[in-house]
Amino acid sequence: MPPRRWMTLLLVFTLAACGPTASSVDLTPATPTTVQLRGRLTFAGSTTVQPLVDKLGGVFHQRNPEVGLEIAAGGSVVGIKAIHQGTTDIGMSSRALHAAELDGISTHQIASDVLAVVVNPANPLQTLSQDQLIDIYLGTITNWRELGGADLPITVVVREESSGTRGAFDEIALRNQAPLAPQISVGITAGDVAALVTNDVGAIGYVGFGNVESSLRTVAIDGVVPSVATVRDGSYRLVRPLLLLTGPLSQPLAQAFIDFVLSDEGQRLVAEDGWVPVR
């Protein structure tokens, strides 16, 4: 055999004996790894969204036991300000943000909420037009007899001014007007509104559909009762978004929580809790 060929074979055998070089490609399949989430997430904002986030957060923590969650409330305005100031990771709002509030904030809609108008079960009222509802809250109609009911003064129940539910109701139901009725009671939470209406035969109030209690009776608006079906077909118009908010100072971990909420499992939990899922 010519010397050159012997040298070529020797080189091939030498490389084979030495095994793979630095430039060799390892075709062994990689073993999948699961990234373990760790850290602490803080929340602030809407008292309407808080119970839903509590429920979602409990399941998220079960899936990620190394993540702690601190969920406070205070109202939608509090959540919006906290994101602007960088003092919380995720804000909660039960209304759409105004243009001036959006600067630097990313909004993530997790559900739609139905604003349900409620009365005491002893009140025979079945339906109101939106114009009649406005007249009640602006003080033009002050007695139930004007609507065919008993001779009984109307007590208007509202949420406090920082509430996202209050902001959404004033904007959507009252067409950007503030309530001016002569008899107004203020509830801090949806539970407070429910208690005020339950304990006053002449009261009328509003709560998120997920907060309708058995002690209340829902009133149809323009002949349409609030339900998942009437929200989806657009016939019931007193609807608002439920939002999670993030900003430039939110931890990357916040996005993992939002991704969970918008997953199939998260949206199933949203529906089970009485809200209309966005997916």
Could you give a quick summary of the protein structure above?
This protein has 279 residues and is α/β, with parallel strands linked by helices.
Report on the architecture of this protein.
With 279 residues, the chain is α/β, with parallel strands linked by helices. The protein folds into two domains: 41-112 and 241-277, 3-Layer(aba) Sandwich (D-Maltodextrin-Binding Protein, domain 2), CATH 3.40.190.10; 114-239, D-Maltodextrin-Binding Protein, domain 2. Helix content is 33%, strand content 23%. The chain has helices at residues 3-18, 49-63, 76-85, 130-138, 164-173, 190-198, 228-232, 253-261, 264-272, and strands spanning 39-45, 67-74, 90-93, 106-119, 127-128, 155-159, 184-187, 203-208, 217-221, 239-246, 276-277. Strands 1, 2, 3, 4, 5, 6, 7, 8, 9, 10 and 11 form an eleven-stranded mixed beta sheet that branches.
Any idea what the shape is? elongated
User: What integer value in Å does the Rg equal?
Assistant: 29 Å
- CATH topology-level fold name of the largest domain: D-Maltodextrin-Binding Protein, domain 2
| Helix and strand pattern | HEHEHEEEHEHEHEEHEHHE
The structural domain count equals 2
Topology:
Blueprint: H1 3-18, E1 39-45, H2 49-63, E2 67-74, H3 76-85, E3 90-93, E4 106-119, E5 127-128, H4 130-138, E6 155-159, H5 164-173, E7 184-187, H6 190-198, E8 203-208, E9 217-221, H7 228-232, E10 239-246, H8 253-261, H9 264-272, E11 276-277
Parallel strand pairs: 1-2, 1-3, 5-9, 6-7, 6-8
Antiparallel strand pairs: 3-10, 4-8, 4-9, 4-10, 4-11
